[in-house]
Write a structure and sequence with these properties.
InterPro entries: Beta-barrel_OMP_2 (IPR025665), OMP/PagP_B-barrel (IPR011250). It holds the Pfam family OMP_b-brl_2. It comes from Chitinophaga oryzae. This is PorT family protein. This protein is mainly β. It has a single domain, classed as Porin (Beta Barrel), CATH 2.40.160.20. The chain contains 1 helix and 9 strands, in the order H-E-E-E-E-E-E-E-E-E. An 8-stranded antiparallel barrel has the order 1-2-3-4-5-7-8-9. Strand 2 and strand 3 form a beta hairpin. It is elongated, with a radius of gyration of 18 Å.
């Protein structure tokens, strides 16, 4: 896992280094994560996300923004037996941003997700079921944001994933994120 994380960070560093002659801004982000999966009887659950990003200006209105983000997906469901599931992810989105105005932008791009842990609680007993999942996943994401004064900003994003469970029928994790950003100037 350490090698994988090192490779991801190295790729992000090379991307930033390649565009070093362009305008680059670094920042932090965090907020509320609302997740749901397509599993039967699953309910929406909330959690938090936090991460870092580098925004690289390409043209007047265009930018690319690689990120490294930690987040938690969770859900509760069942019919006669209630289950509670928690999954912890490390995500590397690469968003293409288009600024409609100097402060308001739209964004879209892929996310590479790595599951760090997965636990399920059934009738009070907790099981580590990480082996039932594909460790790597891919999501497509789209969102919007607005830059506020003093480096702050607000954003919202929706991600739709490809199946994450390896040994069960396809389960899709869908995630909405609402949060704040801070860009170092």
């Amino acid at each position: 896992m350490r090698k994988t994380l090192f490779v991801l960070l190295a790729v992000m560093s090379v991307t930033v280094g390649t565009y070093a002659q362009k305008k680059v801004h670094y920042g932090l982000k965090g907020g509320l994560n609302i997740s749901n999966s397509t599993a039967l009887f699953d309910y929406f659950r909330t959690g938090v996300y936090a991460g870092a990003f580098a925004e690289i200006k390409l043209k007047e209105r265009w930018a690319i923004q690689p990120e490294v983000v930690y987040y938690r997906n969770s859900g509760q469901g069942g019919y006669h037996i209630i289950t509670d599931r928690k999954e912890h992810y490390l995500s590397v989105p690469v968003m293409i941003k288009y600024y409609i105005t100097p402060k308001f932008y739209l964004e879209a791009g892929p996310e590479l997700n790595y599951i760090l842990s997965a636990n399920e609680t059934v009738e009070g007993l907790t099981y580590n079921n990480i082996d039932l999942y594909n460790r790597w996943g891919l999501s497509g994401s789209a969102g919007l944001g607005y830059q506020l004064p003093y480096g702050f900003g607000v954003n919202a994003r929706y991600s739709y994933s490809v199946p994450v469970k390896a040994y069960f029928p396809a389960v899709y994790n869908n995630t909405g994120k609402i949060g704040m950003t801070y860009t170092f100037k």
